[in-house]
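Entry:
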Amino acid sequence: MIARIWRGITLREKADDYLAYLDHTGLKDYAKTPGNRGVTVLRREQGEHCEIMLISLWDSMGAVREFAGENPEKAVYYPEDERYLLQMEPLVRHYEVAQQLFPDSPSRV
């Protein structure tokens, strides 16, 4: 399993609107892509900024390519992202998931 990690920073006052926008763009596209196992959305407010991190899980790099295209390290952006984000980071990170722990049932992947 592969974890794909993307990070963006918006103004704190735009964070709720940006999260709603993500629901209709990237998160919706994750959900409809075969091989996607879900996404965790993290939010961290720091003064006037808000960092958003998406950690999506995928069956394989092939599944990631179905979502991201032939260059899966390149971040995927949508038309109105520029309205919200202070910078457009060009790359994402991928990690092989070595282990997942759930209450009462540790599992190696």
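The chain has one domain: 2-92.
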